[in-house]
Amino acid sequence: MVIFMRGFLAFTKKEFLEQLRTYKWLIFLAVFFLFGLMSPLLAKLTPDILSSMDMGGIQLNLPEPTVMDAYSQYFKNMTQMGVVVVLLVFGSILSNELIKGTLVNILAKGMSRTAVLLSKYTAAVILWSAGFLLSAATNYGYTVYLFKNASVPNLMFSMFCLWLFGCFIIALILLSSVAAAGSFGGLILSAVTLIILLMVNIFPKAEKFNPVTLVSKNTALLNGTNKAGDLYLTVAMTTTLIAVCIITAVLLFKKKQI
Amino acid sequence: MAILELDKVSKSFGAVKVIGDLSFQVPDHSVFGFIGKNGAGKTTTMKMILGFLQQDSGVIHVCGEKVSYGNTKANRNIGYLPDVPEFYGYMNPKEYLKLCGEITGLKKEIIQSRTKELLELVGLDGVNRRIHGFSRGMKQRLGIAQALLNEPKLLICDEPTSALDPMGRKEILDILSLAKNKTTILFSTHILSDVERICDRIGVLNQGKLVLEGDVSDIKHKYRKDTVRVEVGKSFQPEKAADGLRKLTAVTNVRTDNRIIEIQVHNAEDSGADILAFLLKEAVPVIRYEIMEPSLENVFLQVVV
Q1: Which fold has domain B227-304?
Q2: What is the pLDDT of residue B277?
Q3: What is the interface pTM, i.e. ipTM, of the complex?
Q4: A-chain residues within 8 Å CB-CB of B76?
């Protein structure tokens, strides 16, 4: 246990240094800061942008933008572009090391393979959380500034669902990287899995059990179409799936030839 | 005491048998040269010793501890230098050794003092650049430093010199000769001159089996084939002398090649007089006369081919 913790701490430190020196943190935080900044601004300006364009004589009557427009814009950005950014930034955290062989020296020193995976998961989730918090705080502050009244129901829960989904993607990336070979094997397998999960939601009965639901009901939670209780099962399911992904990844990794 | 012990280890990849019933021991404080052609199974064997690959059958012990696949506990006694070591390019050598030390659980002060000592040993002291700009030789030297950091009882080097230029090779061999005072070294290679320079014992691997094992000087002695090599002057046809030499009682075989006559005899020193007398009588213009020492290369070719 002591050996495990020692390795875990040292390797997590190394992961942070890697994020720092390869500028992952900069890219990640900058992109999420922009998402937080742009979403309310775009919602506010959309009517002005449209009315400034020459529509060939057609009269457009657009309603005054609301707080809800700002949030739906934010969640749209985060659940589409945000997911892509998470996939691209974290997609190769394990594959890269396996391809290059940088883990050989480390494992030859008696480092636990479980600790390697948990370190990678911890460091990635912390960077994701930091990016997420930055974007959420920026978005909230700017929305309050632009729309004066920013209070909507279930905002915290809706945000939590988004965050949890990010944690699920990172766990999925680790599992895929152990299971699939090559530099992009993990990335591609994760993306394909997400697309399949997206398609599964065509069946209404599957919705409650599908992690993807966490990022498809965010606006519905805010405008009252869905209640928070509707998603409790999905939250529990996703948490379980995260654990299953990590445990399976550890078991497979232990049997992997290095 | 044997630091490393392999007992009837076998390994196949699909239908291809890479290692078959391999058994050998590496005694304490020796440098064991593990020799074989490319693809003979050297790296496979080393990866099994490190628990990176699972053997199909057989047992491996390191310092009396059984090696089990996927579990790297026995590795705390081992320092490993891969054939092409890979590092985190964004770190500098000190940071990398610090990471290695922390993983192994060395105390902070010990990491600092060992780092200083080892970087001096491998000639990287004062190099504070990041590793991604390092040459192959520098990476190989840093590889040795990281392998020696936890003062391992067994240092495993997988072809440490194969990818290097002559200068880099000499440096690595010099470092290894220094390291051999402190640890046991298992050294795989196909460069035989390297083996002659630093190894005490050798094992020759061919088609997954150890075809020859033992003390380097014993082996050289055993495979000694007395050969006298005579170089003759330009104007002389070596074939002319060959027939006469074959008739001498001590001579078993004669081979000619360009201006060289190679004479195989039972005992080079005793039969030397007969050969010299013959050369003198026939007035052969001798440029050089030498008694050949058996090289490991000859031994290797003999047991492998």
Answers
A1: Alpha-Beta Plaits (3.30.70)
A2: 87
A3: 0.89
A4: 109-110
